[in-house]
Amino acid sequence: MAAGEQQGRDYLQRHRLPELLHRLSALLLYHRPERPREFLIQALERVKAGKRAEGEYPYLMDEANLAAMFGLLDVVGQGHITPAQYREGLKTLGLSTEDLQFGDDVNITLDVFKEEV
């Protein structure tokens, strides 16, 4: 890998730009606004205000949405889902699954799901 390419990767990671772009993309897919550019500008303004502790960070889903999604994943109503179901749910939302720390033998409850998502 060339030095310039590594510097570019380091820059992106240092500023956490891949995560930001993932979240913005997920927001767009979830809300599907008529005017996506304006929507993104507003979302970035909320991120900026949230970092200054002047506002709330723009979350993709609220607790009711998370509970509903969990219910869709927990089709038999066991009160938990598998890590495989969790990964698929994140992929469906367009969220990263790279940093998941769950073993395949773990059951994920609604509380864990809400906290992690």
What does this entry look like structurally?
The chain is mainly alpha-helical and 117 residues long. The longest helix has 16 residues, at 36-51. The chain is built from six helices and two strands; from the N terminus they run ααααβαβα. It has a two-stranded antiparallel sheet. The model has no long low-confidence stretch (mean pLDDT 80).
What is the radius of gyration computed over CA atoms, rounded to a whole number of angstroms? 17 Å
Strand content: under 5%
Strand order of the largest sheet: 1-2
The overall strand count is: 2
Briefly note the structural class of the backbone: mainly alpha
- Contiguous uncertain segments of 5+ residues: none
Total helical elements: 6
Keywords:
2 strands; 117 residues; DD_EFCAB10; globular; two-stranded antiparallel sheet; calcium ion binding; EF-hand calcium-binding domain-containing protein 10; mainly alpha
